[in-house]
């Protein structure tokens, strides 16, 4: 038995021929065992008998961290549209419903029927913007009580107190999380813009 083993010669199978192809496992590559190839190289360099290798094992190596397959992982998205809120001014939707959440685009104080601002005052524009948000929430199967996050953008941060008093009338406790910013300019020279994320009411 020992003589038959010593007579075995190392063999080399190029890795490119044993499967540097993506395996069925997601995010991995099937390839010949690094251990087996390493043994062959050491034996060849030292001119010593190679141990018997009955087979080549297959190992899985990570391809890319966080790699995702498109099969079954794409969330269903549905555009929300209502004539009771201002029509989009560009290539965007009034809101997108994805899974059980509703993502509402930034809304300003335009009157839906005319496409014009209700007035030049920040108070009136805030009131109208929040009404517009409410109509989009309703069209998407949600409401003010299900909002979890809002973002307010102001042309002048000095208007914050006025806006906050009006805002508080629309959202019940516990109030949604909120971010407020002063920006250099808003679409159509609006005084305020509001967007939000809400949960969708269960059917």
Automatic annotation (TrEMBL):
Any Gene Ontology CC annotation: mitochondrion
GO molecular function: deaminase activity
Annotated signal sequence range: none
Superkingdom of this protein's organism: Eukaryota
PROSITE patterns registered for this protein in UniProt: UPF0076
UniProt xrefs under InterPro entries: RidA, RidA_CS, RutC-like_sf, YjgF/YER057c/UK114
NCBIfam families per UniProt: Rid family detoxifying hydrolase
Family, as annotated: Belongs to the RutC family.
Protein name: Uncharacterized protein
């Amino acid at each position: 038995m020992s003589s038959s083993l010593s007579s075995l010669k190392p063999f080399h199978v190029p890795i490119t021929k044993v499967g540097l192809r993506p395996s069925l496992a997601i995010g991995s590559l099937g390839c010949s065992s690094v251990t087996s190839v390493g043994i062959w190289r050491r034996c060849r360099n030292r001119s010593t008998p190679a141990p018997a290798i009955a087979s080549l094992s297959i190992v899985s190596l990570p391809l890319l961290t966080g790699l995702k397959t498109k099969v079954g992982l794409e969330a269903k998205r549905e555009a929300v549209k209502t004539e009771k809120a201002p029509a989009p001014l560009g290539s965007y939707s009034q809101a997108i419903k994805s899974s059980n959440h509703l993502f509402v685009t930034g809304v300003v104080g335009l009157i839906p029927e005319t496409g014009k601002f209700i007035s030049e005052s920040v108070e009136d524009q805030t009131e109208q913007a929040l009404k517009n948000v409410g109509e989009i929430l309703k069209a998407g199967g949600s409401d003010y009580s299900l909002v979890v996050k809002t973002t307010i953008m102001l042309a002048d941060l000095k208007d914050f107190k006025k806006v906050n008093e009006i805002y508080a009338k629309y959202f019940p406790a516990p109030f949604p999380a909120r971010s407020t910013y002063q920006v250099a300019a808003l679409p159509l020279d609006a005084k305020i813009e509001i967007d939000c994320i809400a949960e969708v009411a269960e059917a």
